Fold this sequence. Notes:
Layout: E1 5-11, H1 17-30, E2 35-39, H2 45-55, H3 64-88, E3 92-96, H4 99-109, H5 114-124, E4 132-137, H6 140-158, H7 170-186, E5 191-195, H8 200-217
Parallel strand pairs: 1-3, 1-4, 2-3, 4-5
Helix pairs in contact: 1-8, 2-3, 3-5, 4-5, 4-7
Amino acid sequence: MPRGLFITLEGLDGSGKTTQINQLAAWLRKRGHEVVLTRQPGGTATGDRIRALVLDSRSTGLASLTEMALMFADRAQAIAEIIQPALDQGKIVLCDRFTDSTEAYQGGGRELGSEVVLELHRLLCAGLQPDLTLLLLPSLEASLSRARRRNERVHAQTGQNEGRFEAEQDAFYSRVWQKYREIAAREPARVVLIEGDLSIEQVNEQIVDAVAERLLATARIG
């Protein structure tokens, strides 16, 4: 059985990843593909517990290296439990965030640098790389505004507060945004950059075009 296809969506919170990954999953399933949808942090029982810790605004005083280590613990578990088995079964895996997020947020935002992130990825993730990464980069202002409004709404509705990162200063997010652009420039064969304050439909069109091209190249188009 041929290996499945591993596709990740990246971008700041508020960039529209959740909407787009769900639309992409529906588009693929309509064409007969088996799709596994997951996210990081989270997606496994262990990962959900890590997510609750690292995203909760009450998790104060968390050291940057601790935060990065927790992200990789979540990722290693997701690879072992969900991602690699699905790929081995020939399925398409859609993952909301992967190591690019750690490089952008901890490497860039926390100023830990890319080198330590990439080395931990090599050691803990066996160097597993997405076949295609869709990087959504609307303007920094639009992303932050949407993310903060969403967290306020979710907190009011459920009592969950996943706003720990959104509480960071704009300078932090500027470093994250710039690091994402560095990654896209470094790996143009893997990363498709979709930037600007586009409509949901416009972003979806670019995503579908990129995925269809990659599926055609691997003879998986339905």
